[in-house]
């Protein structure tokens, strides 16, 4: 099978982009005494106010048991709470504490300061890139699911 060189180049660019964004994200997390996973959890909970363990795991793209460990460590650090609703003792609800909210706001502010040069991209170009990447993600997800 002949590999399409444009697709090869695309996959390399996606990997390189991921590595660069992770490097920036990691540096910001460390600067604030957090892990990347903790930053992701803070972001999800900031956007959603609270989340079940399963939904949180899906949002940060790791398994339930990994998410459970992350959440336990964040509870110990005072960044999140986990409670069981009275009407469903099987469900676990995770939410930010005041300390978690404050930490998120500082990390978020600093992260976007670092990425400020990206605002030079024209809005139309950014919109097109997002659209293309969403389409690509959907296609790759289909490929991934068919391979199971």
Automatic annotation (TrEMBL):
Signal peptide: none
Alphabetized InterPro entries for the sequence: HTH_MarR-typ, MarR/SlyA-like, WH-like_DNA-bd_sf, WH_DNA-bd_sf
Biological processes annotated in GO: response to stress
Single GO MF descriptor: DNA-binding transcription factor activity
UniProt cross-references to Pfam families, sorted A to Z: MarR_2
PANTHER family noted in UniProt: TRANSCRIPTIONAL REGULATOR, MARR FAMILY, TRANSCRIPTIONAL REGULATORY PROTEIN
Protein name: MarR family transcriptional regulator
Species name: Ligilactobacillus acidipiscis
């Amino acid at each position: 099978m002949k590999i399409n060189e444009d697709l090869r180049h695309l996959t390399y660019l996606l990997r390189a982009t991921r590595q660069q964004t992770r490097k920036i994200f990691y540096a910001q997390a460390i600067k604030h005494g957090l892990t990347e996973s903790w930053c992701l959890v803070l972001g999800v909970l900031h956007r959603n106010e609270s989340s079940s363990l399963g939904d949180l795991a899906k949002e940060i793209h790791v398994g339930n048991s990994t998410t459970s460990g992350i959440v336990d460590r964040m509870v110990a650090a005072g960044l999140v709470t986990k409670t069981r609703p009275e009407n469903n003792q099987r469900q676990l609800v995770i939410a930010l504490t005041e300390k978690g909210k404050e930490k998120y706001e500082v990390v978020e502010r600093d992260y976007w300061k670092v990425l400020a040069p990206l605002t030079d991209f024209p809005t139309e170009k950014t919109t097109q890139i997002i659209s293309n990447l969403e389409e690509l993600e959907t296609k790759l997800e289909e490929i991934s699911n068919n391979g199971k």
